[in-house]
Backbone:
């Protein structure tokens, strides 16, 4: 008589708890397609679902000893982990975008005040746009590209790093320094 699927998964999780890498690979092979599908439904993007799945199996590697078959079936436990990792990833992406947008909005708010356009406001906005163009021109080419893409395309730091094939730390540093340079430059036109 062959073992039930739950029994096989429970045995694999128990072996993973003992740091059996072969068991982790077997668990991955048996469950990753279902877990990936669940993650994809939560995050909505293939790359993000892949990232969440990777984080899921790292978590399983660390937390397999905490699994108790008497409390939940193995797929329910694995599904809860992938769902949690997927939601965490979404929160991080939103926070990155919000932080980036806030930085750029702060620079723009420092230079453009008022909310009702009148001829004076339009003239001032035109002057400020010219000043911003001049200040952007003073940034090093790659730094200007990163700041412009971040603002115009609403890309997160990690999305920019991936698209430009740059280290994440470099992108963050270029954006931070670029915004500082823009603030300083725009203050001269105020």
Residues:
């Amino acid at each position: 008589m062959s073992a039930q699927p739950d029994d096989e998964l429970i045995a694999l999780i128990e072996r993973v708890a003992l740091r059996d890498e072969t068991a982790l690979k077997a668990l991955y092979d048996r469950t990753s397609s279902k877990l990936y599908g669940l993650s994809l439904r939560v995050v909505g993007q293939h790359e993000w679902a892949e990232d969440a799945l990777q984080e899921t199996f790292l978590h399983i590697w660390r937390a397999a000893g905490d699994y108790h078959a008497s409390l939940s079936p193995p797929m329910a436990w694995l599904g809860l982990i992938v769902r949690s990792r997927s939601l965490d990833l979404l929160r991080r992406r939103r926070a990155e975008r919000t932080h980036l947008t806030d930085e750029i909005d702060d620079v723009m708010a420092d230079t453009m005040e008022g909310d009702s356009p009148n001829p004076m406001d339009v003239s001032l906005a035109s002057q400020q746009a010219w000043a911003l163009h001049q200040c952007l021109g003073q940034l090093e080419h790659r730094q200007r590209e990163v700041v412009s893409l971040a603002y115009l395309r609403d890309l997160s730091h990690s999305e920019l790093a991936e698209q430009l094939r740059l280290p994440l730390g470099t992108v963050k540093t270029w954006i931070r320094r670029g915004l500082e340079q823009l603030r300083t430059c725009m203050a001269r036109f105020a």
Summary: Helices lie at 5-17, 21-43, 46-63, 74-111, 119-138, 141-152, 157-164, 168-189. The chain is about 80% helix and 0% strand.
